[in-house]
Amino acid sequence: MAKTLREVAEKAQAVSLVTVTIDGREVRVPEGVTILEACRMEGIHVPTLCYLEGLSAWGGCRICMVEVEGQPNLVASCVTPVREGMKIWTSSKKVREARKTNLELLLSNHPLDCQLCDRNGSCELQELAYQFGVREIRFQGERKVYEVDQSSPSVKRDPNRCILCGRCVRTCREIQTVCAIDFANRGFDTVISPSLGLPLGESVCVNCGQCILACPTGALSEVSHVEMVWEAINDPEKFVILQTAPAIRVSIGEPFGLPPGTVTTGKMVAAFRRLGFDRVFDTNFAADLTIIEEGHEFIARLKQGGKLPLITSCSPGWIKFMEHFYPELMENVSTCKSPQQMFGAVAKTYYAQKLGIDPKDMVVVSIMPCTAKKFECQRDEMCASGFRDVDFSLTTREAARMLKEKGIDLKEMPEEDFDDPLGISTGAAAVFGATGGVMEAALRSVYEILTGKTLERLDFYSVRGMDGVKEATVDINGMEVHVAVAHGLGNARKVLDQVKAGRSKYHFIEIMACPGGCIGGGGQPIPTNLEIRMKRIEAIYQVDRSLPLRKSHENPAVQRLYEEFLGEPNGERAHHLLHTHYVPRERM
Amino acid sequence: MFYRAHVLVEMTSSSVALGAAQVKEQLEREIARAGLGNEVKVLETGSFGAALPSPFVVVYPDNVIYAPVSVRDVRRIVEEHLLKGRVVRELLFAGERGGGVATFIPPSPLKKEKRVVLRNSGLIDPLNIEEYIARDGYLALAKVLTEMTPEEVIEVVKRSGLQGRGGAGFPTGLKWEFTRKAEGEEKYIVCNADEGEPGTFKDRLILEGDPHSVLEAMAIAGYAVGANQGYIYVRAEYPQSIRHLEVAIAQAKERGLLGERILGTSFSFDVKIRRGAGAYVCGEETALLESIEGKRGEPRVKPPYPPQKGLWGKPTVINNVETLANIPPIILNGPDWFRSIGTPTCPGTKVFTLTGNVNNLGLVEVPMGITLRELVFEIGGGIRGGHGLKLVQTGGPSGGTMTPDLLDVPMAFDTLPRYNSALGSGALTVIDDTHCIVDIVKNFAEFFLHESCGKCTPCRVGGKRIVDILERISAGAGSPEDLEKLRYLGQHMKATAFCGLGQAAPNPLLRCLEFFREEFEVHVREKCCPQGVCTMRPKPQPKKTVRV
Amino acid sequence: MNTPFVYQDIEEILSRYEKEETPLLCILEDIQEKWGYLPRDVLGYVARRLGIPSSTVYGVATFYAFLEVRPVGKYVIRVCKSTPCHVRGATDVLEALKRELGIREGETTKDGKFTLEVTSCLGVCGVAPAMMVNDVTYGNLTEERIREILALYRE
Ligand SMILES: Cc1cc2nc3c(=O)[nH]c(=O)nc-3n(C[C@H](O)[C@H](O)[C@H](O)COP(=O)(O)O)c2cc1C
Ligand code: SF4
Ligand code: SF4
Ligand code: SF4
Ligand code: SF4
Ligand code: FES
Ligand code: FES
Ligand code: FES
């Protein structure tokens, strides 16, 4: 896997430096870095398309070409290491023309209908064409025309807009280790194709949407629920309830120009209220509920010698991954539904009763950072109440688009509160949005429930941050409880293989399909990269710190829900509504 | 058993394509029918060099060559020659018909010929290791293993000045040295027998006619660089080569010339065959490695080069078949002997394959430095049908374009680049002046479009746009700007493509645009094809949607 | 294709390469040799057995010109279109084949006997124009010779 800039910098400490000349300026850079990395370290911009930080370099798009004195051909800076004495020109006439021509060639096999495209405004191809001043396509010729693949519940593939940069393929392979898609055919006929040439919906794709984040163009996007949601909102017969996931409040500002990491909870609530939802609730309420259920499940397994380690279940991408690749660990996975589904199940039973509404007239819409949630809400298992727990699931991007369509500028909104009672939540629920958050929230509650003591230090720093696999040991009543946290399915594999081989010491494992957790989910605003992920994570902990209640079992609304409706945690009704089961799936 | 006569049948892919297998069967049947089964033995042999029409049959020890032979001719050869001892004159090889009895090698049928890599082709039964051994086969390996250190072997190869015959002409000794010096326990020798360059079939004839020479060389290379495993990557189009290699490997192993502890020394070396599956780009060395690794044949990022990181990430030598076939004679005869052949800066011989519109098709091995005129007009017997010469494409579409003004340039790796040309694989495709330059250039471009791996933009899309423009021109819809666009795209592709395929693909286009400017201009200005080849009628483009 | 018998045959092919590193291409070639093409189920089976993602297996199977992922005729005719054959009449050969078989390139005859494809140099340019029928090469093609050759396969 390619180095992140941070690793490059670390390497710089360890290895010797070489002197190169970039655009006439002599600089010293670490030996072994690529020309592109050297340029970026020196603050020199070189455009790229197929290169993406964190993935192996590919060298196919030929946009990052630079001139190296003494070499007859231009070289691709993203795959060429620097050499002592190299003289590099990054914007000579030859270089600029070559880059522009490659853009033109890509565009000559492209629909050129940005107005009809999901990525209009956030497309790297469009942006580069603008920057390079492409005003005509000199090289016209046959264009490939493909069917759009709408078979997946989550990811729409439009090969017509694909520029074959391979970023999706490498993301799926290197970060997620799912390998649902790869190049097929060759030459001008080359395409990105799911397993065995089948539609994506029939493949091992786990719907995580990370490939969408990686895609520079509109070739990959979410399957949209926007029209259905508008229809529900406009239908006077329907009572439309919204829930917003923990990770949305720290990212939805971005499409409106707010810097990454801005907390927008109050403005977000106000904005969605104005969009026409009858109630604006918080998935965080259900996250607290999840902790109660999952915490008790863990305590029960711990006490009664049940299957350990217990593995969290709130990431539907991870769940499908498990069903395909680790069905032997099925019993380790918590039976708890994800917060999205728990919310729906509670809304269409408890809340519908409370309001005296027929659940068939109730529509539950979620706004999620996640594309896998679209798949999850359509799973057969997800209608314990007799109705779909959740009817429609929008990504952050779709939600922002709806606001813009209605002319709502999030920045200008007043601060408002979520509706009662499904809008009340704690800091423990807030941290669900970041990797390690579910674990941290669970530990806060499990500790107190098991020991009966108040936890003094609520912050479990060792499970936070962007390291791929994190671990911690917590002393609970003299027992050492070992926990691990993995985010990104490639990292998850490392932990799961240990469990499978019987070499794991862990009691409790949190797994999130998306790098960084849900703040880096496949439905989040584009761009989503390492830097932005870290800013969103910071914001998540800021939300946690700002809340008066920071432990799930202290959530009064959740307590009331048990008293009035559910009974005991993990009790019969809770089990019926809030838990689910899994199915083994084809492995390849 | 003693046989009074041997009948050698040429068994190569091209001769089989012309019925050699049936000729052999018929010979065996007729010999048995004539009761000669205990006296005369039928053997297979490799190719014999240029100017022999396939399939040919040699009767030994009479040194009589019949060529070409069809199934119908067999009975007469058996009844007249083998039974009654009378040569069948009408069936003799045309070049020798006057003299009556053809002379078997030596002397060779061609005066300019100098056989180093083809030293055994046509002379021995490739399926019988004894015949190879009888002609000093595996002696070089024995010498290397018992008398020389690996460093000495590399030194000899370096001093010989041998340059890779796969097209790029990289010094073989240096490549071996890099690989020897690279860190790593495991190393590999890979023989590139993908031979996809149109017009090239020399490697096939070496493998079919003398497979042991390549195996021996691979073992020597293995000893020199410290590798114990070799792979031969043979294209799927060459089933006959694969068959001969399989037999040769088995025989060599049986005699302890491959496998564990070769010739009782501590050196072990094994060779395995890997088959291609129809992809020209897999001739590019790193794409070839990808293919052996069971992946799509997409070229790798270089550096690292194969001597540092090759097959499965291990240091690897990749050499062409012809390069390797030079190794045993160099070891036996010494570097100075090799340097005495060819030119001072480009020693040795080169196998050329004559294809296209020449009178004599086939291959010939001659010293480096020979001129195109000698090759085409003396050895090749001139242009077919008395037509004029338009151009000779050397080294296949990715090589060089030699126009009639360059006929006297000496052919070598270092000379041709001075004329924006390249020796490449040694393919010579002669094109006569009845052909249209737009059509020819389009044919080259279509080849690259068909063979592009699709990884990089300039080759995948640029290559397609070049074909699109050429199609437009040949359909009478071209404009003068299209010529400038072609030139621009060609240069762009050269400068920005990822691998050698895309970088070399525009070579013929660029050269022809210059040299045949007028002919191109007539196409776009007057919408007319002087040779009457282009249709000059636009064809409708069907639109279809594909599901992927 | 789902009969256990077929999978036994695939197992037999897989067992040939047990000791080989990265034998995917070899296995696909052998399977193709036996069944003429690579059925989707078989590709999936091979992927599972080798522990290679099926998307990767499909990518390999569609990269190489000699591997087919769609059913083809009993005999695949590959006509060489490279320059040495082109300048000796490869276009006429292709046209003659199209006429004789009544199909265009890339198509298969209705009786499932012949598939017509164009290919790059077969390495027998000494007898150009040339073609391959499955793994047998034919050279010095004329319209008459094409008819003779087709007759061999038609019976
Ligand atoms: C597109 C392309 C195709 C090639 N095809 C062949 C080939 O068919 N046979 C070959 O020996 N070398 C071929 N080469 C050259 C090889 O990459 C490599 O240089 C060669 O095998 C090295 O062997 P040598 O040093 O003995 O020549 C090809 C190169 C390119 C770029
Ligand atoms: S992918 Fe980008 S360039 Fe292409 S149509 Fe969409 S927005 Fe425009
Ligand atoms: S959604 Fe996830 S699993 Fe599916 S193709 Fe994209 S990256 Fe792979
Ligand atoms: S789908 Fe997107 S990420 Fe994947 S290759 Fe195409 S343009 Fe690149
Ligand atoms: S130039 Fe590019 S597309 Fe063409 S064969 Fe090489 S890597 Fe593939
Ligand atoms: S960014 Fe370097 S080649 Fe694509
Ligand atoms: S799994 Fe989809 S956002 Fe976390
Ligand atoms: S060009 Fe047709 S066989 Fe070589």
UniProtKB/TrEMBL annotation, chain A:
UniProt xrefs under SMART domains: Fe_hyd_SSU (SM00902), NADH-G_4Fe-4S_3 (SM00929)
Record-annotated 4Fe-4S ferredoxin-type domain positions: 153-183, 196-225
Residue ranges annotated for the 2Fe-2S ferredoxin-type domain, each copy included: 16-94
GO molecular function, one term: iron ion binding
The UniProt record lists the keyword Iron-sulfur: yes
Keywords, in A-Z order: 2Fe-2S, 4Fe-4S, Iron, Iron-sulfur, Metal-binding, Oxidoreductase, Repeat
Protein name stated in the entry: 2Fe-2S iron-sulfur cluster binding domain-containing protein
Organism (species): Candidatus Caldatribacterium californiense
TrEMBL record, chain C:
Record has Chaperone as a keyword: no
Cofactor(s) for this UniProt protein: [2Fe-2S] cluster
Co-factor binding comment: Binds 1 [2Fe-2S] cluster.
Gene3D superfamilies tied to this protein: Glutaredoxin (3.40.30.10), NADH-quinone oxidoreductase subunit E (1.10.10.1590)
Top EC class for this record: oxidoreductase
EC numbers, comma separated: 1.6.5.11
Record Pfam families: 2Fe-2S_thioredx
Molecular function, one GO term: oxidoreductase activity
UniProt keyword list: 2Fe-2S, Iron, Iron-sulfur, Metal-binding, Oxidoreductase
Annotated PROSITE patterns: COMPLEX1_24K
Residues annotated as binding [2Fe-2S] cluster: C80, C85, C121, C125
Record keyword Zinc present: no
Similarity remark: Belongs to the complex I 24 kDa subunit family.
Entries under PANTHER family matching the protein: BIFURCATING [FEFE] HYDROGENASE GAMMA SUBUNIT, NADH-QUINONE OXIDOREDUCTASE, E SUBUNIT
Protein's UniProt name: NADH-quinone oxidoreductase subunit NuoE
Taxonomic source organism: Candidatus Caldatribacterium californiense
Name of the gene: nuoE
